[in-house]
């Protein structure tokens, strides 16, 4: 195998400048011509083994210094350019290497500036949420990408689209699927659009869940997906074809600001419509009430996943046929929150969803188990929460599968209607109606929470000054007054 060539021109130039040498003086010390040293400094010639040894003996330069100096800078720059705002700016990592090697001080400054930007964006978001919680609207916000706009729009409004529910019922009536919804959808796609559905192996379709090839009229589904998710992907494609006018009208009603945001909203509405087809409103709402909102019972009865049944529970807000107004939150094991929805809008102001003490984070320690908990906010509001891990697309032996956790919640006042209330401390098996329920004290998020003595606190509150008394140390790393 050929040895890797070492181009270290910028580093050689910095060593020379640090020692106050001209190119001619350094070239004489190394026994090479000034023109050759000039080519090395411009990365037009690699360092030879003899030259590396000469640098080590004459100028006391460690050979490792010539190869590994930019490693940390490259990793930090990679973090910067992974940001969605910048992710499309660089075609590859070679430019990162060139920046880190040619201008390390500039690289460090870019990283410092980016981290300051992220910190200020987080603080601005915290401030905006705080003002909203106090009933004072503000136009201030962090940098909003199209995906942020879509998420915020869907989180603020009720998770119910009456027009799509009606279209789904008409579609189901026409399909008449019986006990084979996936077969009925495949037959309809073939009959109406000439589309053939095929499930492809991972090696053939390594990067996609679903891909529709308009030229060959084939819909490809990844074998990584569970049978429930395969059904949903097929239903999404069918609904987007069948309900294009209704979906378009709902998108217009959302008043999004860009074509990319509207495209993302179209996918979210297609997902909603697919759930409406897989779990028809009337049948699902009636079954949910009879089963006292037992998600496992519902997923078995309708042949769907736990996540799909839980998601559908947040949609039951048809006038005259409402269900318990559930809200949901999905996080990954790093704590990133990437899906929030609510029957009446996600209760950001009252609940928040950013507290590390919530059971949704503890769920990763007990995969597949349902954790039931009552939680109390600083203002006294109480919620019943249910948390459970979800399995993502299946990976190969050498891959690490994605695992997320879902939190389903509602106001504690609905506990008598929900089967899970029997698992609460103080519960009596009949909804805990007879006595008070012991609740875990949580907050909206560390930066907005003023609970003192919290062992789980990860950040100081933006609303209180830090305590700097050297004679007193509190339980948290972020003491405040």
Shape assignment: globular
CATH topology of the domain at 145-278: Arc Repressor Mutant, subunit A
Helix content: 40-55%
Calculate the mean pLDDT score and round it.
84
Number of strands: 11
Helix/strand order, N-terminal first: HHHHHHHHHHHEEEHHHHHHEEEEHEEEE
- Secondary structural class: alpha+beta
Q: How would you describe the oligomerization state of the chains in this entry? A: single chain
Low-confidence stretches: 429-434
How many helical elements?
Answer: 18
Major β-sheet profile: 6 strands, mixed
- The CATH class label of the domain at 145-278 is Mainly Alpha
Q: Alpha-carbon distance between the termini?
A: 63 Å
Share of residues in strands:
5-15%
Computed over alpha carbons, the radius of gyration is 29 Å
- The CATH architecture of the domain at 145-278 can be given as Orthogonal Bundle
